[in-house]
Design brief:
Helix 1 (about 10-60) runs antiparallel to helix 2. By secondary structure, the chain is mainly α. It is built from 13 helices and 2 strands. It has helices at about 10-60, 65-85, 95-120, 125-155, 155-210, 210-235, 240-250, 260-265, 270-275, 275-290, 300-315, 315-340, 345-400; strands spanning about 5-10, 400-405.
């Protein structure tokens, strides 16, 4: 192994071309010699076919018309195939030599098919010319085979494979560089978004510190607490109410207000706060009567709790809960009115919208940055695998040790 050489991905293609030329120099000379030999053999086949064609013309009168036409057609086809192959440009480059070899095989196969197609239709008097043509074809076949052996014995296929791997590596490296540049830009945008978020949050906190907003928060918390209190108060009769609704729906009992009953089940807070007191009391009286008769088949403990709740309603609990709730709700509405009159409410709404927009943009930037990072990591893993493979292949081909820098 030679001395370790460090090289960047960008410079690798040019360096490998130098290595490839050094490795392939002697082989390419042999390719040129073999290609020349194939072309010389093509010329010989062309000449033999021309002599064969002349012999066919000279045999006019001693050869029937069909045989003469077959012979002329065969000779002209062989001449055209040989001349076309002879005109092909091919240097000693492995790729060009390999293409020329494939074209040569195709041309030879076409010539052989042509001979087999027509030769049996010709008279035996042309055997001397036919023998000369066969000799020329044999030499062409041998020269083509010799070129193929030279190609197979050369490291050209390995060189081309490494060259393709290097091209792929440089493409991956360019893609990785772009992804990393995009990631830097997205990171900058994310940092700017975070700074903007901090700025808007500071303003929002300053706005929230206003005494009127603190008062609004106090009332809103109290309103939510009162809603929880109403739900908790009605919880013991929630299931009995549902059972009563099923019974009343089935019996079509005209004495029970089904709308009020369903409202109590589906939207208890709103019904207690805004429902008709008489209808509510009447509904719970029906429920109490059913419980007193031992209906619903519920546990005694739950029955007692439900009856206690109904008794509290009869003693004015609904009115108290309603009064408390509506008072707090009125305080919320009045505070909102004052905030709107001073313009503070619109400012708070605008601030909330700005924060939502900034958070949404921050989420998008975070996801995009994470996606770029994932793609970069995936490509980097592929680059490292291909880097190691290329380094090993070059070492085996040239005996030189390379360290490809991918960062």
């Amino acid at each position: 192994m030679g001395e370790l050489t460090e090289i960047g991905v960008e410079e690798l293609p040019a360096l490998f071309e130098i290595m490839a030329r050094e490795t392939m120099r002697e082989h390419e000379k042999r390719f040129q010699e073999r290609i020349k030999a194939v072309k010389d053999a093509c010329s010989a086949v062309d000449s033999a076919a021309s002599r064969f064609e002349a012999a066919v013309r000279n045999a006019w009168g001693t050869m029937d018309k069909s045989a003469s036409e077959y012979g002329t057609r065969m000779a002209q086809t062989i001449e055209e195939l040989a001349r076309n192959l002879n005109r092909l440009q091919a240097s000693g480059n492995y790729d060009e030599a390999e293409r020329f070899h494939k074209e040569s095989i195709a041309a030879l196969n076409s010539i052989i098919k042509t001979v087999r197609k027509y030769v049996l239709k010709l008279r035996r008097g042309l055997r001397v010319e036919m023998a000369a043509l066969n000799v020329a074809l044999g030499k062409l076949e041998a020269s083509i085979k010799s070129l193929g052996i030279a190609l197979d014995k050369s490291p050209g296929h390995r060189v081309e494979s490494i060259r393709r791997d290097i091209l792929h590596l440089t493409e991956l490296h360019a893609e990785l560089s772009k992804l990393r540049a995009d990631e830097v830009e997205e990171t900058k945008s994310l940092e700017a978004n975070s700074a903007k978020m901090r700025e808007v949050l500071a303003k929002a906190q300053e706005l929230a510190a206003n005494s009127m907003f603190r008062e609004l928060t106090h009332y809103e918390d109290a309103l939510r607490a009162k809603e929880d209190e109403i739900r908790q108060f009605l919880q013991p009769i929630a299931k009995p109410l549902s059972k009563l609704e099923r019974i009343a729906s089935g019996s079509k009992n005209q004495n029970i207000n089904l709308a009020t009953l369903r409202d109590l089940i589906e939207k208890p807070v709103e019904t207690v706060a805004t429902g008709q007191p008489f209808a509510l009391i009447q509904t719970l009286n029906h429920l109490g009567d059913e419980l007193a008769r031992g209906g619903f088949e519920i546990e005694e403990r739950r029955r007692r709790r439900a009856e206690e709740t109904i008794q509290q309603v009869r003693e004015g609990m609904f009115e108290k809960l309603r009064g408390d709730y509506l008072t707090i709700q009125a305080n919320v509405q009045e505070t909102l009115r004052q905030l709107k009159a001073t313009g503070l409410l619109e400012g708070k709404i605008a601030m909330d919208r700005a924060l939502a927009s900034i958070r949404e943009e921050g989420g998008r930037l975070t996801n995009k940055t994470a996606d770029l990072q994932r793609r970069s990591e995936t490509i980097m893993r592929t680059i490292l695998r291909e880097k190691a493979s290329i380094e090993q292949q070059i070492a085996q081909l040239t005996g030189k040790t390379l360290e490809i820098q991918t960062q």
